[in-house]
Design a protein that fits this description.
The protein has about 575 residues and is an alpha+beta fold. The chain contains 15 helices and 27 strands. The longest helix has 20 residues. Bound molecules: adenosine-5'-diphosphate (ADP) and magnesium ion.
């Protein structure tokens, strides 16, 4: 590393802004020169209005001093890194030039902080807006930021001696327990677990912290569904085990149905201590679905749900630039199964009613020949029986699902009870409704064409995140507002990097199916973690799941795919 950053900066006072570029490289940490700590200016900033420069701070193992138990496993490293990023963000709080991406309630693998698997060394990365007086270098402020604030962050946030050891332990152990609980689900035949005492409601629609106050009812599992799981740190915990199959959440409006489902949606991620959902977990292959009219669909076999459209289009090979509520939800369901989903979550509040139900009276009035849609109620059992895909549905408005549910859970004033027996009795009285499909057909796999994922405009960055929930992909905007399990806005950036990586590494090669390309992406992320995405570009991001990455790819408006004619399910069979 180079010595003397402070003096170098002093010489640049008043120089033209572009000369900051000369500082790119690795420096000894100002004021801690003999410790081995370094400050690297990864990328400069061309002018005061350009995106901030990137800085990486490295604290070597001996100096960081974390006991090996805190970084011995990937889960522990992720938790420790998350704790350190949060602490660093606190130390830097109020400083507008320097932004540390610490994330929210979820504990994700992020580019901002990494703990080395080799020796526990810590690297912190962030953006820093290099200060200027107009287009001249403001060296004094730069010295304050780079030579005093940054060393202060390293000293107070990235060294074990500076931290509250009990708080570090609690954070790491909480995350480890959540992860162990999630890992235990398949062995227990469960799709989700909600611990007794969990707090599910949130502060508000825009505040993801737990709701507070007298009115909050902690979760308590119905007796018959209570399971006990032994965790590495907390010991035995009890809670509601939600089994595989078709589960229905019923109950009156405002009784907590959607809140429970939302907790299952975010149960794919670990949560910080005090969140209330630390021990609310769902299988990693859980995908929330919803209607999303207007979205693009490229060559998806939706014939399980949609037959003979009025315009005569072939629904075994269905494309549109402007899907309706029902066709969008049908496509999203088929795409989720294609990408490997094992559990589907659907809430009546955001579902297309005509894709969910078609009752006896409507069957009598509108002949099947005149109704292209086959409701999910007729294939949801086959999804589980023939494809191993479970479903959890919130449905307070129609009783048709009572017949097909393995479990009916009633929410009553935020308290769940198992009403499956009673539901069976109710469902034993025939309604005159008849099933319109026998089985859910095999998935038709698609192979994305890499050429369709290249940006038109050469030389420009391929993929950029745009605000909270959109990506720019070449010339196309990808709208991710309806992809509800994206944990935070920086995960959108992670999705962009993952797409970029899949194309650059040739995982998407025109012959591999999307599912195979996603397997290769998962392998990259399993072996290199966030480093795999950092290699694409140094920016703030959180590592995404394959499902959100696939969802983004499926929404790229220029996407083209190939389908092998011989693939199972590409036949012309029709439901019912
Ligand atoms: P539903 O989907 O049954 O209509 P919601 O899940 O939308 O009901 O919940 C309605 C309201 O009740 C929301 O404002 C939510 O925050 C609140 N709520 C949900 N669960 C609880 C709980 N356990 N304790 C207190 N308030 C809750
Ligand atoms: Mg609701």
């Amino acid at each position: 590393p180079r010595a003397g950053l402070e003096q170098q900066l002093a010489r640049l006072e008043g120089a033209s802004y572009g000369r900051y570029k000369g500082l790119v490289g690795t420096w000894e940490m100002p004021g801690a020169e003999t410790t081995g700590e370094s400050l690297r200016l990864v990328r400069g900033q061309s002018d005061p209005f350009a995106p901030p420069a990137r800085v990486a701070v490295r604290v070597p193992a001996e100096r960081a001093g974390f006991p090996s138990a805190l970084w011995s496993t990937p889960v522990r490293r992720r938790a420790l890194a998350s704790f350190l990023a949060r602490r660093a963000a606190q130390v830097a709080a109020g400083e507008r030039a320097l932004r540390i991406d610490a994330g929210g309630q979820e504990v994700l693998d992020r580019g901002s902080c990494q703990v080395s698997a080799d020796d526990g060394a810590v690297t912190l990365r962030f953006g820093l807006a290099l200060p200027g007086h107009g287009r001249r270098i403001d060296a004094r402020t730069a010295q304050r930021l780079l030579c005093r604030l940054v060393p202060d962050i390293a000293e107070r946030a990235l060294r074990y001696v500076s931290l509250d050891a009990a708080a570090v332990d609690e954070f790491v152990e909480t995350v480890e327990d959540s992860d162990a609980l999630r890992e235990a689900l398949p062995g227990l035949g469960l799709v989700a677990f909600v611990a007794d005492g969990a707090v599910l409601p949130r502060g508000s629609g825009v505040d993801d912290r737990p709701a507070k106050g007298e009115g909050v009812v902690p979760f308590s599992s119905p007796g018959g569904m209570r399971v006990t799981v032994r965790l590495p740190n907390a010991g035995n915990v009890t809670g509601m085990g939600l089994g595989e199959g078709v589960s229905l959440i019923v109950g009156g409006g405002f009784h907590g149905k959607s809140t429970l489902l939302r907790a299952l949606e975010t149960g794919i991620w670990d949560h910080v201590p005090g969140d209330g959902r630390e021990l609310v977990v769902s299988r990693p292959e859980t995908v929330k679905l919803r209607a999303e009219d207007g979205r693009r669909v490229e060559r998806v076999d939706v014939h399980a749900f949609v037959g003979h459209l009025p315009d005569g289009s072939d629904t075994t090979d269905f494309s549109t630039d402007n899907a309706s509520g029902s066709t969008s939800q049908a496509a999203s369901l088929c795409e989720a199964v294609e990408a490997g989903a094992r559990v589907l979550l659907i809430d009546e509040d955001t579902a297309a009613t005509n894709l969910m139900i078609r009752d006896a009276r409507m069957q009598a009035l509108v002949a099947k020949e005149r109704e292209p849609l086959t409701p999910l109620v007729d294939s949801v059992r086959s999804l589980h029986r023939d494809h191993g895909v479970s479903t959890v549905l919130v449905m307070g408005g129609s009783g048709d699902y009572l017949e097909v549910a393995d479990l009916v859970l009633m929410m009553d004033a935020y308290r769940p009870s198992d009403v499956t027996e009673r539901a069976r009795e109710v469902a034993s009285v025939p309604t005159g409704r008849h099933a319109e499909a026998e089985s859910f057909p095999p998935v038709v796999h698609r192979s994305p064409d890499p050429a369709s994922l290249e940006p038109e405009s050469r030389g420009r960055r391929r993929v950029r995140s745009r605000g909270e929930d959109a990506l720019t992909f070449g010339e196309h905007e990808v709208d991710l507002r309806s992809v509800e399990q994206i944990a935070d806005s920086r995960q959108v950036a992670g999705i962009g990097l993952a797409l970029d990586l899949m194309v650059r590494r040739g995982h998407v090669d025109g012959t591999r199916t999307l599912a195979e390309a996603l397997d290769l992406l998962d392998a990259d992320l399993a072996s290199a973690g966030a480093d795999a995405l950092l290699a694409v570009r140094d920016e703030d991001f959180a590592v995404p799941r394959r499902f959100e990455t696939a969802a983004a790819l499926n929404r790229v408006r220029g996407l083209r795919v190939r389908r092998a004619a011989s693939m199972p399910g590409a036949s012309t069979e029709r439901p019912g």
